[in-house]
Amino acid sequence: MSTWNKHYHWKTKGCTPWAKNHITQETVGKSVTVGSSGSVKVDRLSAFEGDVELGNRKGKLITIYDCSITYAWSGSADDGTEASGTITFPEVSHEIEDDGEEYRFETEMSTASSASTQALYEAVRTQLAPSLRPIFHAFRQSLIDAHAKDLGHDSPASTSGTSTPAPSASAAAATTAASDSPSASKPATNSSSSSKPSVSTSSSDVRVSSELAASISDLWDLLTNPAKIPMWTRSPAQSEPKPGADFALFGGNITGTVVSVDAPKQLIQKWRTPQFPQGHYGTLAINLTEGGDSTKLELILSGAPSGDEDTVEKNLETYYMRGLKSMGLGTIL
């Protein structure tokens, strides 16, 4: 295996269909007893949203997943009263495991309330839903055991170096906000710029750059593929690397139009945040240069509103660079 492949190549395998099937098999049918003869159970998996991937970089397996899972439940009380509803785990992700947190769930009952149905619902809330948590905590290892061999790991024993993307505190806060609230997810900007009657643009360019441990083709894919962009932005994306195509990132808080494409080396975009004066766009150049053991990513924004240079630089560093580094692409020394 070449030095690049062994230490720097980023290889991933999509595992979402497998994950949905595995979680269904492990959770559907689970039940708990209520009273002397009653019970509540998980009837079916009614919604599975999100993506699951297993990556291999620097000889380590990297689990990448962020899913929302909803179940339908039903129950029958001692007196024959029946009830039903839903259990939702809004975030089953590698970040929950990395942070050592517990999985949060939401429960609902769609049946009319009575003493009997409330007893069933209480069992769902305090017993049935919590009983699913250990399955989610074990999911990471199950994912590795099932797919490690497809990424060049001969046996599960080789996963001792398993890691997951560990986002910095600021990047994690940004991505959490992006998924929770459109208003909270807006990149920080100088609010005074939105009140300017005319646009005075900066005479200097805003530049940020970083060496990232990925091949140029993999990094280009992460920056332009709408299926890959959410892996570092934590929100849906509109993207097509084609001149004239519109794009939208971070829930629509970064928007613009593609000007030119030189894949996989350069992407030029008309680029704006909601706090830019109405109708005003800067020009963002995304430049990629592959080295022997990493790829340099340089972002150059020209035409930023005067006075907003520091804020724009912070946005580019936080939302782009730190987002990508949260996937484990920080420079390998």
Search tags:
Alpha-D-Glucose-1,6-Bisphosphate, Chain A, domain 4; about 30% helix; disordered N terminus; 10 helices; ASHA1/2-like_C; about 325 residues; six-stranded antiparallel β-sheet; 2 domains; alpha+beta; Bactericidal permeability-increasing protein, domain 1
Explain what you see.
Belongs to the AHA1 family. Residues 155-206 have a biased composition (Low complexity). One of its GO terms (molecular function) is protein-folding chaperone binding. This is Activator of Hsp90 ATPase AHSA1-like N-terminal domain-containing protein. This protein has two domains: 3-161, Super Roll (Bactericidal permeability-increasing protein, domain 1); 169-329, Alpha-D-Glucose-1,6-Bisphosphate, Chain A, domain 4 (2-Layer Sandwich). Helix 7 (169-180) crosses helix 10 (309-329). The protein has helices at 3-7, 16-27, 94-99, 115-131, 133-137, 139-147, 169-180, 216-224, 230-233, 309-329, and strands spanning 11-14, 31-34, 38-57, 60-76, 82-93, 106-109, 206-212, 246-249, 254-262, 266-272, 282-290, 295-302. The chain is 30% helix and 32% strand. The strands form two sheets. Strands 1, 2, 3, 4, 5 and 6 form a six-stranded antiparallel β-sheet that branches. It has a six-stranded antiparallel β-sheet with strand order 7-12-11-10-9-8, covered by helices on one side. The chain has 333 residues and is of the alpha+beta class.
